[in-house]
Write a structure and sequence with these properties.
alpha/beta, elongated, 6-stranded mixed β-sheet
């Protein structure tokens, strides 16, 4: 048993040559020593002992016969050891012996008939060593990818738990604060009715208490709605946005406040109650920020591409600074002073949460003093095909999808009973439904 070149850098491949012939061992050493670290063994026991040591071989060139065993025994021993189980084994010898070894033992990667020639031996072994390196690299990458998937899955589960806990906390706090805040507001209102006995300074202080308590009540209600927007169950169906937008505009009295243009809007897949809230917030914001302007205009448009519907709500109101656009859909983020445009800074956060829950996205752009546009995307009705047994009323031509009241404050529960024109559940037959 000999070992040559063990002190060479590990960047060179290690080849273990096992053969009973000293002449063949010397020939292999001469052919391979310029490219590889060459280990040689003349016995099965010596070969297995060398293979289990460091450096572990990258390839074994195995003669079909050795003095104390045959090649099949050596191959079986290599496959039993976890350290050498994946090492490629190339059989060597007369063709008949190599074919006999292949029949008696599985796991040989190739065979090279004797007598060897340097170019054939070098090229064949170089190919198998490179294949082994590529397999190991692929295995390492797969392992790293699996670890990254597990890490991200764990992070996602942690975030989901944290988001659920935060939602329950904010909802619970809002409910707990609602009663004392209402009590303060009611007491202040009662005192304000009897302010004749108060001094001017006292009346001013009491008016500030009333105004602050009302603001607190609005904020508590908004936080509660934001919490419910992330927790309520969804009832996804086909929703006719033209009908939904018309109902929201009517509820908000938009036609009297601005010049309104509504393009034909498509049918989408979504929760009608939640989409009603989205449109109510966006249209309400457009009316609020353009209300002080003469010639206020409001436009609602949509376009469909790649199975998605992009809805835009535009107004020519005050606009916002594009440099602060990243804060626009955050909770309690206000880009205008309370005295200029009242509000809690929660409405657009609710819009984003409701749209994202339905697989959509939100965006906005603005030119101060020009047009401001808010956009959201949703799956088009045809993007999720469904069979006749599950067709909703809009897709079947049975009527428009409905919605909940337009005023966001009027509905803290996004699962209110079906409103006018509501799209019936697929399982519920529609009464008097028109056939297409």
């Amino acid at each position: 048993m000999n070992c040559y070149g063990i002190d060479a850098p590990r960047s060179r491949a290690v080849v273990l040559v096992v053969d009973r012939s000293l002449e063949d061992l010397e020939a292999a050493r001469e052919h391979l020593r310029s490219e590889c670290i060459v280990l040689t063994a003349r016995s099965a026991s010596g070969a297995l002992e060398l293979a289990a040591q460091e450096p572990c071989p990258d390839l074994v060139l195995l003669g079909c016969l050795v003095p104390d065993a045959d090649g099949a025994a050596v191959l079986a021993g290599l496959r039993r050891d976890e350290r050498t189980r994946s090492v490629p084994v190339v059989a060597s010898g007369p063709q008949a012996e190599c074919e006999g070894l292949a029949r008696r033992a599985e796991g040989t990667a190739d065979f090279i008939p004797k007598p060897w020639t340097a170019p054939v031996l070098q090229t064949r072994l170089r190919t198998h060593i490179e294949l082994k390196r590529l397999r190991e690299e692929l295995s390492q990458r797969n392992c790293a990818l699996q670890q990254e998937v597990e890490r991200r899955s764990h992070l996602e589960r942690t975030l989901q738990v944290s988001a659920a806990d935060l939602g329950r906390f904010s909802g619970g706090v809002s409910l707990d604060l609602r009663a004392p805040a209402s009590a303060i507001s009611n007491c202040a209102d009662s005192l304000l009715a009897e302010q004749a006995s108060l001094s001017a300074k006292g009346r001013q202080g009491l008016e500030r208490i009333v105004a602050a308590s009302r603001r607190m009540n609005r904020t508590i209600e908004d936080v509660l709605r934001y919490s419910l927007a992330g927790q309520s169950d969804m009832r996804v169906r086909c929703v006719d946005l033209s009908v939904l937008a018309a109902e929201v505009l009517a509820d908000l009295g938009a036609q009297a406040a601005a010049q309104v243009v509504v393009d034909p809007l498509p049918v989408v897949r979504g929760d009608p109650a939640m989409l009603g809230q989205v449109l109510a917030h966006l249209i309400g914001n457009a009316l609020k920020f353009s209300g002080a302007r003469s010639g206020a205009q409001l436009q609602i448009r949509a376009r469909t591409a790649a199975g998605l519907v992009e809805v835009s709500v535009r107004d020519n109101g005050a606009g916002f600074d594009m440099g602060r656009r990243d804060k626009l859909f955050g909770l309690f983020q206000r880009l205008h002073a309370e005295t200029e445009f009242p509000g809690s800074g929660v409405g657009l956060a609710i819009v984003k949460r409701l749209v994202v829950r339905q697989g959509g996205t939100v965006s906005a752009d603005s030119v101060p003093g020009g047009w401001t546009t808010f956009r959201f995307t949703l799956p088009a009705a045809h993007a999720q095909p469904h069979g006749a047994s599950s067709r909703c009323a809009v897709c079947a031509g049975q009527g428009p999808a409905g919605r909940t009241p337009a005023n966001p404050a009027a509905n803290n529960d996004f699962l209110a009973p079906r409103s006018r024109g509501a799209d019936p559940d697929p399982e519920e037959p529609a009464r008097g439904a028109r056939r297409p």
